[in-house]
Design a protein that fits this description.
15% of the residues lie in helices and 48% in strands. The protein is an alpha+beta fold. It starts with 5 loop residues before the first helix and ends with a strand.
Length: 320
Amino acid sequence: MAIPTAGDAITAVLNALQPFLPAMNPGLPKASLSIARAAEKPACIGNVIGIGASGSIASRERHAIRMEATARFAVWGLAAADVDAALTTLSTKILASKSELSAQGFLKLSLGDSALYKHTTANDAWSACADYDVLFELSYEDADGATSLILPVAATEASTDDVWSVTADHARWDDTAAPLLSIRGPARFAGLATLSFFEDPVTPPAGAVTITRTYDGAPAPAPVASLDAFVMAAAGTPPKRNIVVSFASLAAFLAPFAREDSSVDLANALGAEDTYSAARLSFLAPFTLGSIADRFEIAYADAKFNRRAVVYLRALRAGG
C-alpha cells in the first residue's frame, strides 16, 4: 500500500467538506471550496499514533499525516442578505456535523475570518468568503516494507522433565516450512484466526490438515467427524482429552472461517506487495487444557506448501 502524502490529506479535507457547498443559483457563479493555507504538522514521534489490529491475528503500527489548513468557502447571492443567509446555513450545517467530521479525521474545526461582501457588476451579484481553520489527521497502517509480521505472543514458560521452553499461540506456514502449531496448557481456547495470501487462490496448497487435542503419553487420538463435533467433545462434561479431526485439504480447513474486514500488504521477495486477507473462526464453545501435559495442536500434512502461499495461524484464547 502506498504511503499517503500531504497532498492526499488536502484532497481528503476537500472531499469531506465538498458536500457542504450551497446549491448553485441560476444565473450566478457556482459556490467554491479551496485551501487558502496549509502546513504539515508532526503527528507524534515518527508520525506513529498507535498500534492497530489486522484482523484477529496481528498488530501493526498506525501512522498519520497531520495537516493544519484553512478551508475557504466562496458563496454567491443576488443580494447581500442572500449571501449572509447562505453563510449562516453553511456554518450551521458544518458545526452540526462535527461528530461525523471528527470520525473522518478532523481533530479541530472552527470558523475563522470572513471576507467583506463584494458586489460584482458584471452579473449584478454579491459574494463573500468564509474561512474554516482545520487540523486534519489522515491515518494509515504501515508495514515499512516488511516481508513478515511480528505477531503478538501470548507466551508462557513451561517445564517438562526439567526442560524449559516458551510456547506461543501462532505459527506461519509457507512454501519454505509448515511447522506444527503445538500449545500446552493450562489454557482455554475460543477460536482460531488466520491471515493468508495465495498466489493462486483458485488452487491453494493441497496438503491435509489435522487438529488434535491430546496429552503427553496418550495413545493414538480418536477421530471425530467434524470440527464442531471436535469442539463439543473437547468442551464436554467430562471433556474428551484425546481426539483428532482431519481436513482433506488446506482449503477444507479454511472453509469454515469467516472473512474479516481487514487486510495487510506485505512485501514479497521481489519487492512487490502481496495482500493478505484476515479470517476468524469462533468455536461453538470454548474448551480447556487443564494442565501442562495437555496439548492443542494443528498440523499440516507436508513439510511445506507445494506452491507460493502464506498462512499465519493463531489460536485465540478465551478472554483475549
